[in-house]
Write a structure and sequence with these properties.
The protein is mostly helical and 180 residues long. The chain is built from 11 helices and no strands. Helix 1 packs across helix 5.
Length: 180
């Protein structure tokens, strides 16, 4: 599924609605700035949409614009100057990240190879964007890989929350269900 060029402009503007207008990050600047990030995100989303496994995860609930938005926000988290604080800080900061929760809810972390596929598509998108600076490519891939443990923490927390809700809900219903 290739995204039309008119869609590219719309997707970039839609993504900007979710993101503060001035995202200043040394890693984004190393990539070539906001415009390079926009094109990288679009190429990244195209590869996800063309992947049978990942498109089953992302494209069942998202249209193309939403997929581009979602991936841009994830890339911005990976490229954020605050990523170091997030990876070494409290777990609560990690699992309160809406973008991580969204990816977990969509099912990205159900299989380990899903994240590997996502990272591979990012590498392909970096090559397509013709980013020549190997330092920028390496830094982007390394920072993106740092999201995996954050997604794992978020998934564990969400599963634990779900189990706690179930343990509260079912005994209560069981008590009433047994009195007929």
């Amino acid at each position: 599924m290739k995204l039309a060029s008119s869609f590219k402009v719309e997707a970039v503007h839609a993504a900007e609605a979710l993101i503060p207008p001035k995202v200043v990050s040394r890693a984004v600047n190393l990539l070539g700035g906001e415009d390079s990030l926009d094109f990288l995100t679009i190429y990244f989303a195209e590869r996800i949409a063309d992947d049978d496994v990942l498109s089953a995860i992302y494209c069942r609930d998202l249209n193309s614009k939403a997929l581009v938005q979602l991936q841009k926000v994830l890339l911005l988290l990976a490229l954020s100057d605050e990523l170091g604080e997030l990876t070494s800080g409290s777990k609560k900061k990690v699992y309160n990240q809406n973008i991580l929760q969204k990816h977990v809810r969509l099912g990205l972390m159900e299989k380990e190879e899903n994240f590997d596929r996502l990272a591979s598509h990012l590498a392909d998108a970096l090559a397509t964007c013709q980013i020549k600076d190997t330092r920028a490519i390496f830094k982007t891939q390394r920072r993106f890989a740092a999201l995996r443990p954050l997604l794992d923490i978020t998934q564990e927390h969400m599963e634990l929350q779900s189990q706690q809700i179930e343990s509260i809900r079912f005994p209560f219903l069981g008590k009433f269900a047994s009195k007929k």
